[in-house]
Amino acid sequence: MDRGEAVEWLGAARQLKRRTRATSRRYWFPLVVFGLIALGSTPLYVEPSASGPLSFSSVGGFLVSNPRRLSLYWVLGTVVGYLATALYYRWRDRRSGVVASVRPFVVTGVALFVLLLLVSPGGLALVGLPSTWTPWFRVGDLFIRGLTPLLTIAIGLLVLSAFERSVAFVAYALAFLGVALTVNLYDIGNLTYRLGLGQHGVQANVLTAAAVLLAGGAGFWLAGRRRA
To answer: Which of 138, 149, 159, 228 is the most exposed, having the fewest neighbouring CB atoms within 10 Å of its CB?
Structure first.
């Protein structure tokens, strides 16, 4: 093999490597799926009337009008989200021949969500504990807004980013974890009010997290298409 053929083979190998990496980058999908799930939950975060009773949902949050519907939505939404992600990864594995394990992401996310159900004020009754019991890891008003499912998603994305070996995705997952903590501990509606956009309550928090997930999914999808 002469020098020209060697250079040609090397170029082809590099091009194949780039295409393989672009094909294997499918982490945009869970971002879009969970972004849509979060967006769909927005109507359930309507604040209750002043005369209505205050009660926690199984994912926290007493600033909602129907805690039971919110709990059921997140239970079903979480199952659908992780199932859809697992099926999509499996489908892409068959098409591309590049195997990428999504099991740690699914297992971590589901386990954290189950733990959330067991330690949230509305879920304590499931294990026979009073709603006043406080685990050591409950931070301040973390459960007040009912957005803790976003934290389980954020931690799951961090696990997935470690297996995807993408610096950009790791940075995004860390940034979204910060967003998830912010929307759980701060009323974004205060910010929109100061900007003259009106007071939107917890729904502003939900829309913020959903927008970050959807924007991230769209951005990574476009980047993958360009590399391909």
So the answer is: 228
